[in-house]
Amino acid sequence: MTRKEPRVEEVDESELRVEKRPKEWAAGIPGVYHSMKPALEHMGVERTLKTVLKMNHKDGFDCPSCAWPDPNKRKTFEFCENGAKAVTWEATPVVISSDFWSEHSLSDLRSHSDYWLGMQGRLVEPVYKPAGEDHYRPVSWDEAFEIVGNKLKSLDSPDEAAFYTSGRTSNEAAFLYQLFARAYGTNNLPDCSNMCHESSGWAMGQTIGIGKATVTFDDYADADLIIVMGQNPGTNHPRMLTELEACKRSGGQIVAVNPLPEASLKRYKNPQLVRGVIGKGTEIADQFLQIRLGGDMALLQAVSKRVFEAEAKNPGTVLDHAFLEEHCEGLDELRDYLLTLDEATVLEATGLRTEEIDELAARYIAADKVIITWAMGITQQKKGVATIKEMINLLLLRGNMGKPGAGASPIRGHSNVQGDRTMGIWEQMPPVFMDALGKEFGFEPPREHGADAVESIRRMRDGKVKVLVALGGNLVAAISDTQVAEKAFENTDMTVQISIKLNRSHLVTGKEALILPCRGRTEIDRQATGVQFVSVEDTVCAVHPSWGSVEPVSENLLSEPAIISRLARATIDGKIDADWEGFEKDYDLIREHIAHVVEGCEDYNRKIRQDGGFILANGPRDSRTFNTPTGKAVLTVNDLEYLERPEGTLILQSLRAHDQWNTTIYGNNDRYRGIKKGRHVVFINPEDIAELGLKDGQNVDIHGVYDDGVQRVLRAYRVVSYPTARGCAASYYPEANVLVPLEEVAQGSNTPTSKQIIVRFEPSTHTAPSKHDAEATAQVPDAEPDGFPVAGTGVPVKEAEAANA
Ligand SMILES: Nc1nc2c(c(=O)[nH]1)N[C@H]1C(S)=C(S)[C@@H](COP(=O)(O)OP(=O)(O)OC[C@H]3O[C@@H](n4cnc5c(=O)[nH]c(N)nc54)[C@H](O)[C@@H]3O)O[C@H]1N2
Ligand SMILES: Nc1nc2c(c(=O)[nH]1)N[C@H]1C(S)=C(S)[C@@H](COP(=O)(O)OP(=O)(O)OC[C@H]3O[C@@H](n4cnc5c(=O)[nH]c(N)nc54)[C@H](O)[C@@H]3O)O[C@H]1N2
Ligand SMILES: [Mo]
Hints:
- This protein has 32 helices and 33 strands.
- By secondary structure, the chain is an alpha/beta fold.
- Among the domains are: about 125-195 and about 420-520 and about 555-585, Rossmann fold (3-Layer(aba) Sandwich); about 200-410, 3-Layer(aba) Sandwich (Dimethylsulfoxide Reductase, domain 2).
- The longest helix is centred in the first third of the chain and has 24 residues, at about 30-50.
- Belongs to the prokaryotic molybdopterin-containing oxidoreductase family.
- InterPro entries: Asp_de-COase-like_dom_sf, MopB_CT_YdeP, MoPterin_dinucl-bd_dom, Mopterin_OxRdtase, Mopterin_OxRdtse_a_bac, Prok_molybdopt-oxidoreductase, YdeP_MopB.
């Protein structure tokens, strides 16, 4: 393979341009054009065709971008613009050469942006940074495994290590990884899900007994009404738009609940269809409720209240009495609570008008089959868990669960984040799983719950976790409170990152650090017994195989299962009854064990080879059975709370631009929101701009408002006048993590409240930086003795006064 030198210009924020905003529609011809351009430029025609045409096909690989499911009938181009970017980014032939590591010190690399880092090309050899040095140097694989194995063996307790997972990892790798961690002796298995859909898992687990979607792929087109809450599908799940369009075309309705008028929720031009290419496209949202950040709980309660009121007017016609009687508990308590709900509080919390809420309620009551979908706009709220419980309440009242075209549908982010959980990546797997795991491999797994993502950072900060191993991801950039996270990483003895591309977590390290480069999902995985495939689970519980389609960028790369097997051999060889060497050669052996341990995966090797794979059983969806203590779905009473902002402040959400994949920045544009060549922007409603005495286009410093004595600030951000809800602002993740205190988490799920950051603004005396300057922007005042913020007293959460005292 010829090596191509990357030519990457560093970001120059002073070139930032703001265009007409926001765009009125999504996708269409520009979508296809934009999707093919980067691939052709980087990879050439042959590699592009081998990847893009195989993507999401039955004999191809699962798109490494989002977890949106594949239809049964696949089209030639079963991908979207952002999937194409993800594949191009991974399958690029550009690699990081050995001399890169002597040319660049860590200090030097830290001054570069995430964009620049990712564009340096694929990581192709293991590298090691010894204690006290500022450079990585290439090492052999054997050396690398020995260094990590010896370190792990030297710890006083297995709980001094934590094993992070990001959601691109395959089922096979995830299963081996959790086995390795537990055989080593710890449940410290933090994952990206802790920062993502953890709130969904908790809310659904407690109410319907399973933390997964209760719908199938076909249900979207079948629904009478889909309520899309806190989600931006045009950027983050673009292929979902095709299903929203299908729903509309068969007479269904869509309601969007969002503080931002996201382009894709207005109008969609399907690039696969003639009407999408030459016509005006399909109008998506029939109703758009421009809610205040965090107002969703109040809105859902108000709609449920109207359902009860309508039932009272026409008894026997609105509630699904048969369903409620047979399958649910808690109806009377919920009614009693909701009928006292104070409407003034609802209007204040939501920022909506009564007629808008009435209209949504009328649509809900008129529809027989309703789906509610949601993503980060809900899970990353302080009351995220309670809000999702309110969605379940609303759905249950009219029996919208366990029938075609209806149900609860959290839309997962990472392409296999759901599968990783199924495989045991969770710091608190239940006893049945642990029993089966112990029995299968002849050992006693640790039973004490481990640390999640936020807790792992606390323990690293406090010197209790000394080694961090990460299977993918970019934890230091993805987690809240960047300053604390970076200090926590630096406080460890060793950080080990299994990765495909360079990122910030390789540069902010423990005293010693290693990068172990792995093959990506697009690449052919040849092992001693032949070419291997892996398996993944999408957001509607469909499990299917994924086959790489291009030659790996380097012969030297190992697969994730191989790396984990070798790490295990270097650390705990012979400790449990596991054929680590065999696992690496033949993934069927791993799947044999999965079949014995993981519920629903019996006969895995056969089922995964069926045409299109198989769908995991799901009690609520398949048979209206609920794995709760009473066997019934639980209607819950949740005291209404919403975020109150002090005068002179706004609530800021951190979200994704169109040209990024989480912490990976593909480019510096946010096409649908009209932003070009920069990321340091803050979107504010024009009336708030005026009220705060600011000006459109002005540079401001954004200060986090928390009374824990720590200064959290983003400097030189451009104010962009934008039609967001009043009192609310928006800025991009991951940069905004500087502003989120570690202790600000969703109640019940411990997910950082990335969508609810109280901020104030000051005119900036700084000029727009032309390079990434996280260090310069994140300042800890000298007054703070050890540089760590103490646990905050938190954002004031206002109790709703009259609600069910
Ligand atoms: N191209 C691309 N695809 C991706 C990703 C990516 O970064 N890039 N990331 C993947 C991952 S891991 C995930 S989890 C998903 C994330 O998918 P999304 O959840 O769509 O991601 P965000 O950009 O965080 O967008 C949050 C949306 O919620 C809205 N919102 C924010 N706060 C509130 C609120 O209080 N109430 C309501 N009703 N709405 C609110 C925002 O305005 C925004 O539209 O996407 C996945 N897919
Ligand atoms: N403020 C704020 N913070 C957030 C969020 C937010 O909305 N706002 N969203 C949260 C969410 S939803 C999530 S999911 C997390 C994301 O947290 P993470 O999953 O930790 O972060 P990613 O940016 O997805 O990880 C990207 C890195 O994964 C590696 N990688 C990519 N593909 C592979 C592969 O196939 N194998 C291996 N081993 N490595 C690979 C690459 O090196 C790449 O740099 O961030 C969370 N943080
Ligand atoms: Mo996510």
